[in-house]
Amino acid sequence: MIDCAVTPELEVGADIRVSAIASFRIYGKAGVEFSTKRWEIEGRFASAENLPGNPALHLTEAIDSPLYRVGVGLELNGVNGVGLAVRYNGAFGQTVKQNAVSASLKVSFQLTRGRRPRRDLMRTKYAYLAAMLAAACVAGVPAAGLAAQNKTDKVAPAARPADAAAKPQLPGGASALSETHGDWTVNCQVTGTNKVCSLSHQQFNKQSGQRLLAIELTTKTGQDAAGTLALPFGLALANGISFEIDDKKLDGTLQFNTCQAVGCLVPVTFDANITPLLQNGTTLKVNATAADTTQPISFTISLNGFGSALARTADLSAD
Length: 319
Fold this sequence. Notes:
Immunoglobulin-like; 3 helices; 20 strands; seven-stranded antiparallel beta sheet
């Protein structure tokens, strides 16, 4: 999806001369912004931050559209390049309410070979400077920028450091990305100089909302993948698990590594011989054994979207 924004705007103003040495300009403007942009925020539970298979929480919220923008300003220009400007800008939408007031003071200096003594020029300049500072204080506007914003305001990003170009990048300069590919999700996050991308699949109990299983994989080439499978408690850990792809049993048994709050974890690796089967398959079946009944139990993972998710993860992981 391509993010874009269009803001048609109309501004009306007038320049008024109040004396031979001073003038001011007053203006007002109004516009409306139409946007398809979205805010995306990624988070994790702090208590499970270092646990394998801990999935990220991705929150996506569309920016208000339409967003109505208004602004007014007053610019006072005095003699010898001394000037004062006061501005108000607001933005209002369904969830956004932004009010910003700023003031700026301009004093320009130049060498002049005129008939007037330099001391008189400096004296005049300082007199206008003092007068305009007094006017700003009377108006209740400090001679420095200030803004009143609530929690829904869009704050301008800070200047990027000089070495920002060397840091890993995501499309559009984003620091986090989440995409859905069928029944799989691709997540990428840039933290400092590190970029971590993965593809994952999760299943939840429809009644309780409790997670039943999760698998998270990483890949650099798109030809193989490795990661962690999280299964629910109550399994015979000593028996391990085995895989089937569309009723084709894979050789070997994988052992559980540990059990943590997210479930019982199994490290998994799919080499270049197994990955094509996953890309072209329909389901991945996980075979295990129930601890209380010693009966076989199976979990079925949909492979819908696995191929495109794997390729996308490899593409995003590339430096």
